[in-house]
Amino acid sequence: MEVANLEILFLLFLGKPLWMWLLFITIVIALLVFDLGVLHKDDHEIGVAESLKLSAMYIALGVAFSGFVWWSFNYQISGAAPDVAGTLMTGAEAAKLYLTAFVVEKTLAMDNVFVIAMIFTYFAIPRKYQHRVLFWGILGVIVLRAIMIGLGATLVAQYSWVLYIFAVFLILTGLKMMFMGDKPMDISENPVLKFMKRRMNVTEELHGNSFFVKKPDPKTGKLVRFATPLFLALVMVEIVDVIFAVDSVPAVFAITSDPFIVYTSNIFAILGLRALYFALAAIIHRFHYLKYALAVLLVFIGSKIFIADLLGLEKFPANLSLAVTFAILSAGVVYSLWKTRKGSTGDVSG
């Protein structure tokens, strides 16, 4: 019986043994429990120092996970674990692809910070309750990204030409970011927000850290459940993640079609960014020009599959991909910091 139970752990799920997925989910759950149950047991305003320390911890864990990726992929190739579908990667190549995807996801997700700050401002959410929204929002991200990546992996496995569609989409998105800019998000006109306000009982004011409260119905006097602005903010944060995932998920699939690398790099990047939010939100204007580097990066990532075909390569070299990614993003960060060095924010609404 014990042998049979162990064999279950080596069954393949999306090309990887079940134990690899279970280990990753266990790590994520442990981090979330530690975050909410220990570090933020009580609601409090998170300062810049605490935000940077927590973010550094998540970044270190995300980078360290590349070591597990390296080991686990070599472990599979050695025959100690069941084979995976398709071409096996060496541990070194898998680790480089994971790090590239992690860096790309981390940087793409930085755009979320500006929009999330707008959401909190619109709903007048105090800083001491913002972490609660971001924490519960990450649970939705874990599920939503899993669904989107699972669907993407299935499509890529069945129809390899889908990768070319992803690539063209990324190139067009990058060009749009580069030449057309971004329109400011009008939260009040969001159709989901309008729908919730029409169909749900919503309080005008916050009720501490509660997402729902019971209050007398104005018409009947009976106690009914009301949603608070904190819940509306949570829903809007989730919607923002779905919108940004439309860009970020294809971007990672253009780097690698391995679902394990795609999903783990996504989640580690987002976990860390939510922690960094409280430090980054105050200085997001200093990274205004980073969006142009992101535009170039999206064009590069989308172009890789076509460049590899033109050069007769099976895939774009992982070493070169990681190096170019770091070069583009480093240039964007340095240029942004240099342009805003005198404290002038300029027009950062785009």
The biggest sheet amounts to:
2 strands, antiparallel
Tally of helical runs: 12
Task: Report the principal-axis shape.
Answer: globular
Q: Report Rg.
A: 22 Å
Order of helices and strands: HEEHHHHHHHEEHHHH
The rounded distance between the terminal residues' Cα atoms is 61 Å
Q: By helix and strand content, what is the structural category?
A: mainly alpha
- Tell me the strand order in the biggest sheet: 1-2
Describe the structure.
- It is a single chain.
- By secondary structure, the chain is mainly alpha-helical.
- The chain has helices at about 1-10, 20-40, 50-75, 90-110, 110-120, 125-160, 160-180, 190-200, 230-255, 260-280, 290-310, 320-340, and strands at about 10-15, 15, 210-215, 225.
- The strands form two sheets. A two-stranded antiparallel sheet has the order 1-2. The chain has a two-stranded antiparallel ribbon with strand order 3-4.
- Strand 3 and strand 4 form a beta hairpin.
- The longest helix has about 30 residues, at about 125-160.
- It is globular.
- Residues about 80-85 and about 345-350 have low confidence and may be disordered.
